[in-house]
Structure formats: structure tokens, C-alpha cells
Amino acid sequence: MADTARLAFVGAGNHSTQALYPCIAQIPEFDLVAVCDLDAGRAESAARRFGAPRAYTDVDAMLDEVQPAGVCICGMPDMHHSVGLECLRRGVPVWMEKPPAWDLAGAVELVEAARNSCAYGMVGFMKRFAQANAIAKEYLDSGELGPVSSITLMHGAGRYDEFRRMLLFNGIHMIDLGRFLAGEWITLHAFGAQTSAGTQAISVSFTLDCGGVGQLNINSAHTWQDTFEQVYLTGSEGGLHLESGRDLEVISQKRRFSEGRGLETFGWSGRYTTSHNLSGWFSSGHHTKGYWGELRHFARAVLGQVEPVATLADGVQAMRIIEAIMQSLASGGPVVIAEVQ
Asked: What domains are there in the chain, each with its CATH number?
């Protein structure tokens, strides 16, 4: 079996060249064979900087000539959709940034294209691969915390001009993280606020398939240089507190993790913290935020070493929840979320 996957990358804009391409050199399974961008200068620059032997401005020409084993796609949602469809219809697996399309119908179309060609796709829900979030999921799956009773998700970022865009480009991450940690959402009731200064906020109460409840609070009151993210989850045996996918605090009598900052409270509970003292390249955030993890997982999936996760179907369900939130904001009432297909 090959030990590296021949992967092409479509899109050479700011996000891809600042957060994604820099990960490739640290992924032993990722062989970058081509870069494609409508702007020839950007494509050639990214190829030169990140070690791809060929640069293209036409996706079809790249697919015909290079015949990659998989394709990464990072741009606007319409590009994710159109390029993703072209690759999937050829039977080429894809990884694409979120959201997978502008609307639910487009996301569903990608799933159907993958099914028809026996291919698959992953969506850039990098928070699943962030260091603390991944350990929290392992801890939850161990059963040590008991069944989930509640989850609270909070996120603040820079300005958006409408609720839908804030949900599509930022809220979708917290929606997927909520599903990843606590399971499927069943019903929701959303409330929105817009200030005269342009700040937007959405608060969503929801029920979980496991019988628990949840709360999602997102806003645009921060700057892009100073975003905010926290998750608090409770079970029947304590709770978890997550800070920006980097810090994990376990609040439980059961000592699953070694003591970190260790704080005994009233003699009956302990707090245990993961370490994030990562040196060198990892401390820049590519590892702790999950970008490195999601791209490496895709490369390994292409090689057949792991099953793909954060799939196109997960993208569809996140889009369903966004549609339900928008419906609730418009109607002022609760909405039942469609079942996972």
C-alpha cells in the first residue's frame, strides 16, 4: 500500500494559505501534487510556497492531467458545491471547507453525488479535531461521565451583516461541535437580536435525542482578532468545561486524567486539566484548532487507513439545523428538526 496520498488543492485564498496549506508539510501522508485557483498568480505562488509541482487555473484540466487520489477545496460555498460535484461525479473523494453549499438543497446534492459514484466527502469541521475537543469526546465515549444531561455552547466573533451568514460561516462550527459531543438535536426555539451598532446575537434552546437539553449562544460583538468560545457539558457524574478547543477541564470525582492545576472543592470533587504546552510549530494554533488533524484524517482516509468523519452527511445535518433556526427566527416559535437521513 502507498504511504502517501496524492492530493490536489483547489483554492489559494487567505484562509487556505494561512491556515491549511501550512499544515501539509507536517502531514507525512499528504503528497501535494497540484494547486488550482482562478487567479494564476495565486495558484503559482501557493504551489511554489508549499511544494506542489504543478499549478492550474482550470479544475477539469487539473483532474484530467494529474488524476489525484483526492481533492481539498477551500473557497466560497458556491465553489465548494460546484467543484465538489465535479470531483465526486468522477469518483474522487473530497475534503471541503464549511459550509458545503449556500443552502440545504446544495448540501443534499453533494451527498447524492457521493452516493451515486461510491465516493465520499469530508467537511471542514475542524473543531472535532481540536486537541481538547477530541479528548473530551474520548472521555464521553468511555461512559465515565454518564449520559449527557445538558450542553451550553458559546461563541463570539467579528461582524456579520445578517443572521444567516453568521450561522453559515461561524455558527455552523458550534452546531457541529454540539452534535459531535452530545448527539442529535430534535427540537429548537431560536431568538435573535440586532443592535443599532450592527451587533447581532442568536440564542437557541434545543432538546437532544439522548434526553438532555442544550443552549447555543453566538454573537458578532467581538473582533476577528479576539474571538471567544466555550462549551460546558454535564452528565450524571460531573461535567466538562472546554475553552476554545484548547483547554479541557474535567469536573468529577472520578480521576480519569492526571491532575493538572488540581483543585479540590469542599473535599468531594476534583478538577483536572489537559496540558496544551505544545512547542514550536504546533503552538501557532494549526494543531490545537484542528486544521492539521482534519487534513491528516482526510489523507489517511484516502489511503484507506481510517474511515472518513465529519462527512457530507454531517454537513447536511448542520445545514438542516441552520434552516430550522432561521425558520424559528421568522416564526417566533419552536421547530422540529428533520431526522438524519
From this structure: 5-119 (3.40.50.720), 127-279+320-331 (3.30.360.10)
